[in-house]
């Protein structure tokens, strides 16, 4: 049993949090709802959404900072992996390659489901298992790749959304210390959470307007 003292959770008023801050520990809306991991900026958009929902404060054992800084606590006894010996530039390239490869995989998966109208769970779970390993090792660099890669108008919107959702879900799940099988289930759920929309015309879910009554009946 660890002798470490429990972390002291503090409350932070939304109006006092600088947009784009990086908290040194995960940020919570309540005891079970994680809003952001340390590698994720606490964005102005998130502050606006929370304010619109009339939330006034969030909770964290960390502190907001202008720039992300990796925590050194608990590094003793960490598993030594290939990524341990890579330079930052190598990790950036590795993360960007992972992101591009994962994006292509999801695009092909969604196309296959649209054509064959069937989905095999086991291969998807194995893909997510591999993704979990890479994301947990290089989560800061994977998030950097996620932010830096420019959206292409020709990209498959649903696939891009699924990839981003999956990466963020796995990062948050790892901070919650979910066991591996639960983390894989979370990743699969994030990947497939809107797969049913592949049956809709793209203009339906890409439009910012509300659906008309006849469209609601049709879809």
Radius of gyration: 19 Å
Largest sheet at a glance?
A: 4 strands, antiparallel
Low-pLDDT stretches: 73-80
Q: Find the count of extended strands (DSSP E, 2+ residues).
A: 6
Whole-number tally of structural domains: 2
Count of DSSP helices? 7
Shape: globular
N-to-C order of helices and strands: EEEEHEEHHHHHH
How would you explain this protein's 3D organization?
This protein is of the alpha+beta class. It folds into 2 domains: 10-65; 82-204, no CATH class. The chain contains 7 helices and 6 strands. The strands form 2 sheets. The protein has a 4-stranded antiparallel beta sheet with strand order 1-5-3-4, with no helix packed on it. The chain has a two-stranded antiparallel sheet with strand order 2-6. Helix 2 packs across helix 3, helix 2 packs across helix 4 (157-175) and helix 3 (121-148) packs across helix 5 (180-192). Mean pLDDT is 81; it is low at 73-80.
